[in-house]
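Hi R.,

Here are the chain sequences for the assembly we discussed:
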Amino acid sequence: MRFLATTKIAFASLRSNLLRSFLTILGIIIGVLSIVLIVALGQGAQDLILSEFEGVGATAVILRPGKQPTGPADFSDTLFSESIKDRDIEALRKKENVPNAVSIDPSVIVPGAVSYGDELYRPTTFGWTATAIEELLDIQPESGEFFTADDIRERAKVAVIGSKVKEELFGDDDPIGQSITIRNHNVKVIGTFPSKGQLAFFNIDEVVLLPYTTAQRDILAIDYYQEIFIRADSEENINFVVQDVEATMREQHNITDPEKDDFFVNTQKDAVESISTVTDVLTIFLVAIASIALVVGGIGIMNIMLVSVTERTKEIGLRKAVGATNRDILTQFLIEAVMLTVGGGLIGTTGAIALAALAALVIRQQFALDWPLSVPFGAIALGIGVASAVGLAFGLYPARQASRKHPIEALRYE
Amino acid sequence: MESNTHRIIQAENLNKTYQTADTETIAIADISLSINDGEFISIMGKSGSGKSTLLHILGFLDRPSTGTYIFGGVDTTSLTEEELAFIRNDKIGFIFQAFHLLPKQTVLENVMLPLVYSRIPSREHRARAEEALERVEMTHRLYHMPPQLSGGEKQRVAIARALINRPDVIFADEPTGNLDTRTGEKVMHTISELNKQGHTVILVTHESTTASFANRIVIVQDGRILSDQPNERRHVHYQK
Ligand SMILES: Nc1ncnc2c1ncn2[C@@H]1O[C@H](COP(=O)(O)OP(=O)(O)OP(=O)(O)O)[C@@H](O)[C@H]1O
Ligand SMILES: [Mg+2]
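And here is the predicted structure of the full complex:
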């Protein structure tokens, strides 16, 4: 009742100073806009990355040689480690060692360029199994076919290439049946991938895929693997698979102290978690910077509220003289400050959502990414919540000043 | 209405001192005053004699430094700020020399202002305001803004605002001070009328013509009561 009346008073006073009210909340608008925009875009990016990973599957376990990298220096250890070899694959493939694994697919990376006639291109070349790609990315050859288990066993010199590779090397010609040269080895193109762009770790359009045996033995002439892709029979059993893989590898390599492991195991969950952590930290960092605008905006509110309290000293005196309590006056000015900042918050949040939607459309068109087009309710709540908090925090001091005025001294104020 | 002999105000040994820098100003000293329900009192005195200070204390806009103030049978000396605000809102009406209307609110809104802070349901506010405005003959200016009113009209709106809570006591500090003689006279007739309708009126003025409307005149000098006498020649010369 009394609160409603006080709210009306506050609203009327803001309306009578419309331009000043608007200029006052500019800082809040900018602050809230940046924060909500950052959070919305951060959420969009995270959702996008996570949805890519969901495609990769929650049942994937990846075994790599070397040490789990914890910093840039560790990467060289991982890249140049040769600890995972054929006998390890054989051991892992034994059902009694890793009973919950349904497939074990080793892979090697082939550095360098690929050529066809005079055309040269640097794709991402690696040896793997075609079934792993098929399952993992849910992808079928656009033309030709994938290589088979027989091709892998026989170390067939065949390759499946991505759309970008095809375009660069063959232009409009049909690549199927043609020979391309990889590190002085001739390999026959038997299939092409459909154009799908970035999928999880790599851009499928820039890939040249070989049977891993061919890539390892013939092209690179090495006896180790850079990555073993293991699929668990279910998401629940993924931890058993991790434990069994680790136990098997330690037995193979005679390791008793896990600290001395010459391999490491990751799951998609780990990857998802670490990516979430990165985007979260980045978001928090950017929000912290944007909060500076909010603090500046808050100080602006405080300043204008102090001016307003001084200007309206007589009004305060009169209200007290006719029966307003300290609390009534405090509430009136606090509501005014909160109305200002929430108004700014509403404008800022609306602007941020509009900008986020625009960004989503642009990203979708320009980068062919499946950027989510959602209304970030959390971000809206955040924007309004933060704005109210700023209003309360920075409006409290001026409102207290107002409420503590002595009625007679206030009435006498010139 | 209660009986005319009911004592509404009893002040004993009121003092008010102001501490400014190194000097101590004694605004009122040792004032004792009893006022009955229905009286019309004029407080007179030279400028700086302490009239306003006394009125503010009696009207709960200020507190005495020492002394006892019993209002309507209740000792108000130790009441909280909130309780004083309630008395201001519910029991008294104040009329100022400078009117003190809110310039951006209509006549109607200005008159209803005290009700915002009262427990009176808002659907009754308008009727009450119109009734109060009727008593000061200002119903034809409901939606005017104060700057559009003449001085006398402003003061009548201010009187309506003081009336809206049906106060026991109306306090007026130089209500005619900003008005010309004729307009002031009219305002005094209005106030006098309110007194006849039963409101106790306590008025501060330094004009004897204004004071003459009262039935009792208190003269203050240097913060003390110099004389306190019934007004024998009550505004006969005003009744035209
Ligand atoms: N806040 C204050 N601080 C210091 N001195 C004050 C204060 N208020 C009033 N006084 C002093 O108290 C004395 C009485 O003041 P008051 O306003 O009551 O006089 P008054 O009789 O109403 O005079 P006037 O007829 O001019 O209005 C004056 O000397 C004045 O200077
Ligand atoms: Mg005075």
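Chain B has a mean pLDDT of 92. The pocket of adenosine-5'-triphosphate (ligand 1) is lined by residues B 18, 20, 25, 27, 45, 47-53, 206 (CB under 6 Å).

Let me know if anything looks off.

Best,
T.
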